[in-house]
Amino acid sequence: MSNFRFKALEIAQSRQALSVPPPAERVTEYYGSYTFNNEVMRSLLSPEAYLKITQAIDTGGKIDRDIADEVANAMKAWATAKGATHYTHWFQPLTGATAEKHDAFFDVTMDGKAIEKFKGGALVQQEPDASSFPSGGLRNTFEARGYTGWDPSSPAFLMDNGAGGKTLCIPSVFISYTGEALDYKTPLLKALLEVDKAATAVCQYFDRNVTKVTPTLGVEQEYFVVDKALFYARPDLVMAGRSVFGHSPARGQQLEDHYFGTIPPRVNAYMVDFEFEAMKLGMPVRTRHNEVAPGQFEVAPTFEEVNLAIDHNALLMDLMEKVAEKHNFKVLFHEKPFAGINGSGKHNNWSLGTNTGVNLLAPSSKPKESLRFLTFLVNVVKAVHDHADLLRASIASAGNEYRLGANEAPPAIVSVFLGESLTKALEDLETKSEVIVNKGDNVYYKLGINRIPSLLRDNTDRNRTSPFAFTGNKFEFRAVGGGANSASTMTVLNTIVAAQLATFKQELDARLANGEKKELAIVEILKEYYKSSKRILFEGNGYSDEWVEEAAKRGLSNIKSTPEALGVYLKPESLELFERVGVLSHAEVESRYEIELEKYIKKVQIESRVVGDLAMNHIVSTALKYLNKLAETAKALVDLGMTDEAEPIKDLIKEISARVIAIKKNVEAMTETRKKANNLTDTAEMAKLYATEVKDFFDVIRYEVDKLELIIDDEDWPLVKYRELLFVK
């Protein structure tokens, strides 16, 4: 019997839900209490400094050093009053995790006295060692200098260290000594600035009062939780973040009873706890529920400005992991931690809003507003159509490769869902030059039950199988992986939309210069855009094989492997786009390509080693011990003259032996193939070999191991089983 497994189960089954008292009676009493927000700045800064800092945030303008000094003094006073002892520039390097280097708020004078110190220079800039962060060849590993720079558009916040004291975290960009971006935030900020410029310029045709357009984002985060003891009893979860072996339990998600079901008490206590902490940090998390798979859940916030939303999501993931420890849980953000059940996505709900309070993707029945809506809608569709492969590249990762197209998540084929009413509106636009959009404001369901109020119907249904679906007043990009940083996708999406809107403006200005009437010129351009882009629109089941065939007929890409998808970044048109819009230089794009390939190789390499280790040191060794037991039993039966009774046991011995041989043979072949890949000097070729030849062994070995799980005595099986991991109580 595997004592470790059963001891872990005993510990897990003894856990009880923790009591989580609220910080105060009302959310309004503690919401944002750990953030250096506008309210705090207004109370601590001089009116002049407050005005300059808010103007700089709104316009992206430069902040003078004297203003930075005043802000730094105010931050220090606020943070230390709340128990902070250190500060850090909190940034998002291309490792995929957040990073921080803590410095104390004090310094020592020449006479040995300690003084509190935090000046504007320390606020604006810090110097972490850049040599150990991935740079994709931008820097030599011995060149250590890199800089973090304060991003004032994202509020500083306090992070409780858990062991006494707090740290003031200052959201920052991260650049190399020579000025190239080494993080997710820098290109994102550039893309957001460009889409603001381009969208504002287009809005001017409809409303001169629009002077700013803000992209907004709501990030729905899916995740699994498992008991901490069970987590550490599974080396694959510890090392790779996913289970490389595990037979599907008799009951998985087929009863469809977990989705929106009653939240298990321990999980609910955990959710409540991290939500309290998130609220203190100004993160507007509002929704919690069970997801489709057992052990899977979701948290979703209110919409925010894109940069802030992505900061908050990265911070939320970190916070969820820390709070999980308190509740004896481990959080799994991996896109596919368990085979045979749904994986986890990070649904990115994106829209555009003006400073006049208008959602540019909200339908309207008023002619002028309707034309504006269709202008932005069609331009977004065309941007996605023209750069579908680049969007596919932005979601490519080792984890998402397991999830995309697995009859639970959008396929690797990028398509757009608009719904029946909007599709008809665009068809009318193309064929009749008519601009009619029905908002559906007064469409109600009549249920025939008097005590149930009438239910308002949205103007379009949702299509959960579409990667890029219009959902009423926004687009939902469902293909982003659960463990990803959404900045990569949002950088690409906002870049391609900015480029497309700029092209639209050029074409419209040319028509207006020729004397065409504005409204007619807009309609004619939109008709051309729709006609050239409508092949990407799909209303049906994106999970079906029929759609794969149909997409191929339409000429839509179906890029399945991560290395192939990442290769799109290096296409001349991609390099030209990023440089033309001013988001990434050629060198920065190429470096990101190299970094993502290296991450892919390392993650598949780790999984391969885990597969080999578990197969040989856990499974095969257990199988051989069980074979010995069976052989002794069979021999005893034969010695007693019970030859017929020994036959089924002999059959089991033969089957187990055959599976052990298959496992050993394939592990050895996989190891040799991995060595072959590691000897390659070309990163792209190495990634390709890992994606095909090395990774191809995973399912072959898994099949044999999972079959052995059904044969070997439950008390001898060394790994915690799916039925024990998934059903959290």
TrEMBL record:
Residues 184-619 form the GS catalytic domain. PROSITE patterns: GLNA_ATP, GS_BETA_GRASP, GS_CATALYTIC. InterPro entries: Gln-synt_C, Gln_synt_N, Gln_synth/guanido_kin_cat_dom, Gln_synth_cat_dom, Gln_synth_gly_rich_site, GS_Type-3, GSIII_N. Residues 85-179 form the GS beta-grasp domain. It holds the Pfam family Gln-synt_C-ter. GO terms for biological process: glutamine biosynthetic process. Coiled coil: none annotated. Belongs to the glutamine synthetase family. This is Glutamine synthetase type III.
